[in-house]
Design goal:
This protein is an alpha+beta fold. The chain has ten helices and five strands.
């Protein structure tokens, strides 16, 4: 067996056998070897030792879930498992940083999660991302496969009373481009028009070009900015 707890030492042993001329196949009973899986350590060590590696395509849970999610598939990111943060301060900091990045992510987000961590992860996602569409995929390609399109809030309510079972893939809606635009506009509007103009002029823009950019940032016409700056003249 080759797993999370022996991935480094066992990989060294396997690479020595490969260098001695043996052929070795890495297989798994779930998912795809080397995708959020200790197999990535073995592949890396093989490359470092000049051992050729090939892959036979098979079902990848993240892609299967994406195709079943009903969420946009053209652009997506894969985060794997979020760090466990029960007692490790460094892991808590890392998890917080990842969640902050995901809150700004506009692509569809794919995560893996074990049943005993699912509720905590849903809570973390809801707190960091707010209300989003999510599709929870469970036991993909197996007898008890379940695909549940819902929202983060409703998923939290559901699993407060239902026990999570099986391995999960979470497919989460990315932040809308309109929301990104509105947030950026709100940040500009928190500045005075004079401060906004000064920001661009300090970068070398002439007043005409700065005025045009300020109007674009604030979602108004250039004439409105011009009229404001020239009032009382």
């Amino acid at each position: 067996s080759y797993h999370e707890y022996n991935r480094v030492e066992k990989a060294k042993q396997l690479v020595e056998q490969l260098k001695a001329g043996k052929n070795i196949a890495l297989i798994t009973d779930a998912g795809t070897p080397a995708i959020s899986d200790p197999g990535e350590v073995l592949v890396q060590l093989c490359h470092e030792n000049g051992v050729p590696v090939t892959s036979l395509p098979g079902p990848a849970a993240c892609i299967v879930a994406l195709t079943l999610s009903g969420l946009p598939t053209g652009r997506f990111c894969f985060e794997g498992f979020l760090p466990s943060d029960k007692s490790d301060k460094a892991a808590r900091v890392k998890k917080k940083q990842i969640l902050e990045e995901l809150a700004r992510e506009t692509r569809t987000i794919i995560l893996y999660e074990a049943p005993h961590h699912l509720l905590r992860t849903l809570e973390d996602l809801y707190e960091a991302l707010g209300e989003r569409r999510i599709t929870l995929c469970r036991e993909l390609t197996k007898k008890f496969e379940t695909v549940m399109p819902t929202t983060l809030r409703k998923a939290l309510q559901y699993y407060e009373t239902e026990e999570p079972r099986g391995e999960y893939v979470l497919v989460v809606e990315g932040k809308s481009l309109e929301a990104v635009r509105q947030e950026a506009q709100a940040e500009w509007e928190a500045m005075s028009i004079e401060e906004h103009m000064a920001y661009y002029e300090s970068q070398g823009m002439d007043s005409k070009l700065a005025m045009k950019q300020v109007a674009k940032d604030r979602g108004v016409g250039k004439r409105e900015i011009y009229a404001y700056l020239n009032k009382g003249q």
